[in-house]
């Protein structure tokens, strides 16, 4: 009941996946701190410090916190006003043999920063798998509608025809760039390592009696035990907050992609050409029972805007880190990092759900094409007349007059476009009347759109999804279910 009496972030309580919400949970955070302390003790023991086997054993046996330990830690933090030291003392109560060596030589950022880097790398991996699935779903959609003509829009004004599948490849290309950018950021994440209070490793040099080689080996061992291939060569008390910029930048960029896709879908829903999933019991409006609001796409846009602006926090925080560090990054990052990954996770889940249930209305699409195509076909009509021996300038004038008359029917009287009927009724066009139907075939106006779809899927999408990292998640084939 307490959960209903205090504010809960909707990112975790309403939208996010269990995996991402757990990753940034208190339980996982403090488990990771304890794991880092264990790794440090193992490496220090291996390099000759007097740490007992019993201490290592007790630490390893108590990595997970129970409810009582959370209560103890909360009381300790209230007393000490220091979260890391509160957990050092709490860990020491369940691992008494290790109480005197937990956190030996380390600064608080040994656990806080290294843990953040672990969370960041894991979160990026979760996002990559989800993004691969979204790309796969949109690729299926593009393939299915590779050659379905649809009216293209520039400036949201009628333009030349494209296909539903070709339009989807525009979304896919940006998603592929996001996959590349997020993977680059993930693969570039290093470990802060064992660097001491201002990054000089002075405390560890004292522990090992001035043996520089052992200090370097300690940094390497802890890095490897923590699952990283390298540690940043130099740090201050913290890892550079510029790393947060590098990580959040591709997430913000993905937010822009998702917003663009969802906006296109919202516009298509208004045109009644393509709709997102709408469940049989779903209510579009509390007042207007007929409505089918694109609420999923609207949610994507809403959260994507939030995702895009979070990066600004990282930029501003990195810019004001005085000398070896200042603590005005701490409270900000406790909010910024989890929110960025939770938001990206929610956007991806929602985007997958949308991509798996898109509904296309070919007859509506065809009707809109029929309203605009006669105007677009005028050049084809002129060229056909010239091929029959007609005069290009005279043909142009004839078409111009009829086009303006038809435009008046549409804009002035609200009637259908009757340009083709006017052409059929005009004797001047007798030579090409048998060809009118073929001249107006929408598929003759889509250029190489179907072939572009085929080539793009084969040469770009399929290679990207063939990465072994995505093999298992793509095989599962499950659908994304939304909590609300």
TrEMBL record:
| Transmembrane portions of the chain | none
Q: Does the keyword Lyase apply?
A: yes
Q: Name one GO biological process term.
A: 'de novo' IMP biosynthetic process
Q: Which UniProt keywords apply?
A: Lyase, Purine biosynthesis
- Which GO MF terms does the UniProt record name? (S)-2-(5-amino-1-(5-phospho-D-ribosyl)imidazole-4-carboxamido) succinate lyase (fumarate-forming) activity; N6-(1,2-dicarboxyethyl)AMP AMP-lyase (fumarate-forming) activity
What are the annotated GO cellular component locations? Answer: cytosol
Q: Per the UniProt record, which EC number(s) apply here?
A: 4.3.2.2
**CDD domains with a match to the protein in the record:** Adenylsuccinate_lyase_2
- Which reaction does this chain catalyze? (2S)-2-[5-amino-1-(5-phospho-beta-D-ribosyl)imidazole-4-carboxamido]succinate = 5-amino-1-(5-phospho-beta-D-ribosyl)imidazole-4-carboxamide + fumarate; N(6)-(1,2-dicarboxyethyl)-AMP = fumarate + AMP
* Designated name of the protein: Adenylosuccinate lyase
| Native source organism of the sequence | Jaapia argillacea MUCL 33604
């Amino acid at each position: 009941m307490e959960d209903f009496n205090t504010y809960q972030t909707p990112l975790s309580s309403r939208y996010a996946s269990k995996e991402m919400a757990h990753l940034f949970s208190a339980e996982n955070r403090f488990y990771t701190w304890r794991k880092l302390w264990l790794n440090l003790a193992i490496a220090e023991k291996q390099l000759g410090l007097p740490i007992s086997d019993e201490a290592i054993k007790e630490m390893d046996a108590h990595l997970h916190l129970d409810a009582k330990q959370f209560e103890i830690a909360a009381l300790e933090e209230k007393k000490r006003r220091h979260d890391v030291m509160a957990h050092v003392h709490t860990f020491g109560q369940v691992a008494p043999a290790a109480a005197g060596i937990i956190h030996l030589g380390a600064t608080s950022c040994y656990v806080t920063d290294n843990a953040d880097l672990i969370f960041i790398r894991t979160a990026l991996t979760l996002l990559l798998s989800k993004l691969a699935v979204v790309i796969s779903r949109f690729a299926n959609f593009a393939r299915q509608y590779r050659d379905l003509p649809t009216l293209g829009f520039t400036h949201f004004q009628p333009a030349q025809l494209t296909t539903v599948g070709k339009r989807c490849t525009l979304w896919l290309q940006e998603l592929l760039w996001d996959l590349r950018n997020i993977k680059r950021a993930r693969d570039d994440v290093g470990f802060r390592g064992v660097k001491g209070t201002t990054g000089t490793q002075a405390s560890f040099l004292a522990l090992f009696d001035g043996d520089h080689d052992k200090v370097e080996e300690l940094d390497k061992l802890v890095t490897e035990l923590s699952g990283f291939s390298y540690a940043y060569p130099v740090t201050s008390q913290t890892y550079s907050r510029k790393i947060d910029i590098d990580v959040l930048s591709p997430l913000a960029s993905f937010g822009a992609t998702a917003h663009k896709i969802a906006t296109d879908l919202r516009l298509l829903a208004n045109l009644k050409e393509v709709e997102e999933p709408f469940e049989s019991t779903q209510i579009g409006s509390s007042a207007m029972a007929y409505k089918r609001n694109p609420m999923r796409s609207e949610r994507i846009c809403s959260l994507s805007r939030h995702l895009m602006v979070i990066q600004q926090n990282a930029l501003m925080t990195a810019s004001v880190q005085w000398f070896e560090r200042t603590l005005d990054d701490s409270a900000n990052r406790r909010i910024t990092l989890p929110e960025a990954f939770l938001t990206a996770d929610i956007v991806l889940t929602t985007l997958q759900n949308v991509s798996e249930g898109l509904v296309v209305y070919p007859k509506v699409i065809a009707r809109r094409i029929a309203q605009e195509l006669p105007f677009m076909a005028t050049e084809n009509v002129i060229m056909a007349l010239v091929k029959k021996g007609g005069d290009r300038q005279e043909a142009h004038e004839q078409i111009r007059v009829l086009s303006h008359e038809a435009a008046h029917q549409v804009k002035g009287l609200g009637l259908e476009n009757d340009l083709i009927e006017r052409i059929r009724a005009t004797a001047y066009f007798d030579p090409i009347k048998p060809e009118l139907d073929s001249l107006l075939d929408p598929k003759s106006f889509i250029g190489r759109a179907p072939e572009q779809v085929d080539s793009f899927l084969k040469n770009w999408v399929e290679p990207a999804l063939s990465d072994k990292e995505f093999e298992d998640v793509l095989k599962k084939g499950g659908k994304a279910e939304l909590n609300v």
